[in-house]
Amino acid sequence: MIVTFGSINVDLIFLVKEIPQAGQTVLAKGSRTEAGGKGANQALAAARDGAKVVMMGAVGDDAMAPIALQNLEGEVDISRLLRSREPTGSAAIMIDANGRNMIAVAAGANLVAQSDGVEDELLRNATYVLMQMENDASQIEELIRRVSNQSAKSILNLAPAYRLDRDLLSLVDIVIVNEDEAEALAGWLGCESSARSLSYALDTGVLRTMGGEGAEASIKGEEVRVPALSVNAVDTTAAGDCFVGVLASALDRGLSLDAAMRRAATAAAIACSRPGSQSSIPHRGETDSWTEKSLD
Does pTM surpass 0.85? Predict the structure, then answer.
């Protein structure tokens, strides 16, 4: 079982020819509203890949909450969610003609989520606890410490990049970063941004995703590098979250690190190949099918 403590948002998505510069106004070719948030995206990706997932977070008591929860309901256990007077978290996303994006996030109710909502019994029954950095940092820090005293393993997606104490990060089993986050973390630690260097500096496992260059990991002396699948990128919005969620799901059911990373890369490629945030996240059968084709 995977426990996810994370953000739950509504994504306001604008399709533009080019990402605007500062002070520039552009006309969007279209727009849509979808459920999102790193925590919710990763929880849904893990659930769609076959994992049992319990989600802890918070939404507002407003008209946005049903939109934010529409995909989680029925696929993820959301019985522990808090309802807050703060507005449901939201994100403004601009996507250009090449599928690249620029995102601004308003945390809203996500900052109200309390880590003690993840009770000790739940931690004792969990295999992995998955966290990101779109909630109150103090709550994430507290949960990392609590998980370190349990048998469950922790995965922290350090996104967006936020400076946490080195000793605290060393308690995490796997720290996941993209290239930009790896650069930021390397700057704080005074090392190179490779997974190997970051892992050595933190004395824990590190996985770095590198977009079209694939992903690399250095965990407990094991070093793995997997390529990205070549696809026509339509929308990269939730691809990183899809990778993290499917990786957790694959590890949860006992796949090797190499196999889990390859599966996560396949699922992320599927997500890139079609528009949408959570709507782009594949189900287990789709990922199985793409995996089989890549082996032919």
Answer: yes
* 296 is annotated as an active-site residue: no
> Given a cut of 90, is residue 275 above it in pLDDT?
no
Place of tokens 């890139």: 272
- pLDDT score of 293: 67
- DSSP assignment of 208-222: EE-GGG-EEEEETTE
The predicted-structure confidence for 92-115, as pLDDT tens digits, reads as follows 989 898 888 898 989 999 999 999
Kindly state the helix (H) or strand (E) to which residue 43 belongs, with its residue range.
helix 38-48
For residue 191, what are its two tokens?
Answer: 């090392």
In sequence order, what are the beta bridge partners of 208?
177, 216
Does residue 131 sit in helix, strand or coil?
strand
AA letter at 109: A
In degrees and rounded to multiples of 5, residue 134 shows phi and psi of -105, 10
Cα–Cα distance measured from residue 244 to residue 207, given in angstroms and rounded to the nearest whole number: 10
The active-site residue out of 11, 77, 241, 252 is 241
40-82 pLDDT tens trace: 999 999 999 999 999 999 999 999 999 999 999 989 999 999 9
Q: What is the pLDDT of residues 33-46, one digit of tens each?
A: 999 999 999 999 99
d(CA 58, CA 8): 7
Query: Which tokens is 52 given?
Result: 């049992």
Burial status of residue 189 (CB atoms within 10 A of its CB: 0-12, 13-18, 19 or more):
middle
d(CA 39, CA 127): 17
The overall average pLDDT reported for the chain is 94
Helices (H), ranges, 56-194: 65-69, 120-125, 137-148, 166-169, 179-189
Peptide linkage before 282 cis (omega within 30 of 0): no
d(CA 248, CA 4): 10
